[in-house]
Amino acid sequence: MTPIKLSGPMLPPKSGGAPKQLMVLLHGYGADGRDLIGLGGEWRDGYPDMLFVSPNAPWQFEWFALSDRPVEDFRREGADMARPVIVNFLIDLWAQTGLTARDTVLAGFSQGAMMALHTALSLDQPVRAVLSFSGALIPPAQPWSKPPVALIHGDLDQLVPTRLSNDAKAALEVAGVQTELFIEQGMSHGIAPDGIGFASRFLGQHLPVKA
C-alpha cells in the first residue's frame, strides 16, 4: 500500500533565507490548508526565519470522519489513523529543512487542534510548543511527550464545547504537561484577535527568535 503523503500551501520565511523554525498548521473539519495558512501571517514579522506549512488532510476536508457512534470512540479511531500520516509529514519536513522537533510548533483549529495536540504528545521528542484553538484532547496510547501547550477556546462555542479545553487542561497538568488556557469571552467556534494575542505571548515565552 502506497503511503499517504500530505501537501498544502506554505509561507516561506519572510527573511528570504533558509528556515530556522517551523510551524505546521492543521485545519478544521470541512476545510483545507488554505483555510489556515493565513494564520501564519500573524507571526511572520516576529519570526522572520519561520516556515509555515498548512497541509491538506489526507481524506477530503477531514482528518477523521464524524460518526453517530460515541464521540470518544470515533475520535480515537480517527486520530490513530491520521497520526502516522502527520508524523511522516513532519519527518519529511525535518529531513528537507534540517530542522528538528525542537524547532517546530504544531498548531491547529477544531479537528486540526485535536490532531496537533494528539500528534505532539505521541512524538518521541517534544516539539517546541502546541497551539490548540477550539480543540479537545485525544490522549495517545503510548507514553506522552510533554511540550508546552496553549489551549484557546471561545466561551460560546457550541460545536466543540468549551469544557473540552477545560478537561484537556486538567488531564495535561496531571500528566505533567505545562499548560495554559485562555477562554475568550463572547467568542463562538473560531479564531479571534484576543486568542491570537494570547497565542503570540505564549510563543514569545517558549520560542526565541533565532539569530
Describe this structure in words.
The protein has a 7-stranded mixed sheet with strand order 1-3-2-4-5-6-7, with helices on both faces. The chain has a single domain, classed as Alpha/Beta hydrolase fold, catalytic domain (Rossmann fold, 3-Layer(aba) Sandwich), CATH 3.40.50. The chain has helices at 34-37, 71-97, 111-122, 163-174, 193-206, and strands at residues 10-11, 21-26, 50-53, 104-109, 129-133, 149-154, 179-184. With 211 residues, the chain is an alpha/beta fold.
Please tag this protein with its features.
single chain, 211 residues, alpha/beta, Rossmann fold, seven-stranded mixed β-sheet, 5 helices, globular
Count of alpha and pi helical runs: 5
Using the alpha-carbon principal axes, give the shape.
globular
CATH homologous superfamily descriptor:
Alpha/Beta hydrolase fold, catalytic domain
**Strand order across the largest sheet:** 1-3-2-4-5-6-7
CATH class categorisation: Alpha Beta
Helix content: 25-40%
Number of domains: 1
Distance between the termini: 43 Å
The largest sheet is: 7 strands, mixed
> How many beta-strand elements?
7
Quickly give the structural class: alpha/beta
Average per-residue pLDDT, rounded, comes to: 93
Output the radius of gyration.
16 Å
Taken as a percent bin, the fraction of beta residues is: 15-25%
Which CATH architecture?
A: 3-Layer(aba) Sandwich
H/E series, N to C? EEHEHEHEEHEH
Task: Could you tell me the CATH topology label.
Answer: Rossmann fold
The parts where pLDDT drops under 50 for at least 5 residues are: none
